[in-house]
Amino acid sequence: MQQETNTDQPQVYSKYRDAALYREDQKIWWGNRLGLTRIDWYVIGKFLSTFLFAILILAVISCVIDYSEKVDNFVQKKVPGIEIANYYKNFVPHITALLFPLFIFISTIFFTSKIAYKSEIIAILSAGVSFRRFLRPYLIGGGVLCTLSLIANHWIIPVANKQRVDFEDKYINDGNFGAQGDNVHLGISKNTYIYIQSFNFVNNTGSRFTAEKMSGTLLTEKLMAETIHYDTVKKVWHLTNVNIRYNDTLTERLKKLPQMDVPYPFVPKDLYRNEALKEALTTPQLNKYVEQEQLRGRENLNIFLVEKYRRTAQPFAGIILTLIGACIASRKIRGGSGFHLALGIAISAVYVMFMQFSTTLSTKSTLNPMLSVWIPNFIFAIVALVLYRRQTK
Questions:
Q1: Model confidence pLDDT, tens digit, residues 106-147
Q2: pLDDT tens digits for 55-92?
Q3: 59, 92 in Cβ contact below 8 A?
Q4: How far is it, in rounded angstroms, from Cα 215 to Cα 190?
Q5: 246-257 burial: b if 16+ Cβ within 10 Å, else e
Q6: Average pLDDT for 306-320
Q7: What's the sign of the alpha-carbon dihedral 131, 132, 136, 139?
Q8: 73: part of which helix (H) or strand (E)?
Q9: Tally of structural domains, the chain
Q10: Which secondary structure element, helix H or strand E, spans residue 38, and what is its range?
């Protein structure tokens, strides 16, 4: 006797099957909206997962190396474990941002070489997909990472760097601003400029102090003191062996004093030229700091301007290196992934060399800071264009 089937009973699927079908439907829906195919999603997934895996390995190795260098300080200063953990929470974004373009480049070469070795790229191109169309998921993946890096460089990573630098000043650099300042020039008002030959931040004492007051191009008053010390209680500067010259264009007078107190509008911290400060300021704060230092008469601010423009140029370098990596590794060769990775590391070294050379010309010479950080991008953009045209032929 034939068993009757109940057509009214609903078909039952497991929750795992339903979730998988739902995710697939969502991927197809978004793909249709963005003009992406299943192959595009496959490439994007491989791209982002390989990059995250590479960054994770980098973070672990960097933390281990840094900890091995600082463990003596941690033990000697009895640093609490929670503060060490918080330090490395802020250290990871710093090292990640520093090597972002290089790891996006190596990640691109690694996973592209893998799928090329399996002849997957040959199959894609044989199906009628042009190489330009094949690069679309690379541009999308690189664009996503570029956007995240751009936002992080300007606003997120400087906040983490501030906590990292404060920790290092407290436990690694003994909290004394690192030493003493030599040949300090500072504008303390619109017409007043000071000079200190050397200043010790431990005892807040300097030697060979000079304060000049200007009226246009005329020097109206010049004060010279053998030593200068900041009184943290009275909030004044104590000067010894003082000579003051007055000039009114017709006559010149000299006044000598054994000591005197002057409430100059600056404190010892203002004399400290901490280059690490540039990493701990968000871009709006960095702009304000540069304007303030320009008013104070500081001559060379290129190191801060280089940092400002680097935050924008570096993410775009990631997109350029992504295109170079895709063009290099998409061709199946006998050497396989090993040759592609070796070539990628060599190109990365050349990029770092160009970046270091151009930024040094800016910080130590007169090269425009914006131009210095974009020169490597311009050069490698030309390389990317040449490789792209070679692949499309």
A1: 999 999 999 998 889 989 898 889 999 999 999 999 999 999
A2: 999 899 999 999 999 999 999 999 999 999 999 999 99
A3: yes
A4: 10
A5: eeeeeeeeeeee
A6: 94
A7: positive
A8: helix 38-77
A9: 2
A10: helix 38-77
Are 164 and 54 found together in one domain? Answer: yes
Of the candidates 273, 296, 315, which is a domain's last residue? 273
Distance (Å) of CA 314 to CA 44, 148, 319, 373:
21, 12, 9, 8
Q: What's the CA gap between 351 and 374, in Å, rounded?
A: 12
Sign of the CA dihedral running 120, 124, 127, 131: negative
In a domain, 280, yes or no: no
Locate 77 and state its tokens. 């200063």
34's CB contacts (< 8 A; 6+ apart) are: 140
242 burial via Cβ count (<10 Å: 0-12, 13-18, 19+): buried
Domain range for residue 194? 180-273
pTM for this entry: 0.80
The SS3 of residue 8 is coil
Q: Which residue's entry shows tokens 């790229």?
A: 121
Q: Please state the rounded mean pLDDT for residues 351-356.
A: 89
In this structure, what token pair is assigned to residue 332?
């199946």
Long-range contacts of 206-215 (CB under 8 A, 24+ apart): 206/271, 209/239, 211/264, 215/191
Q: How many CB atoms lie within 10 A of CB 1?
A: 3
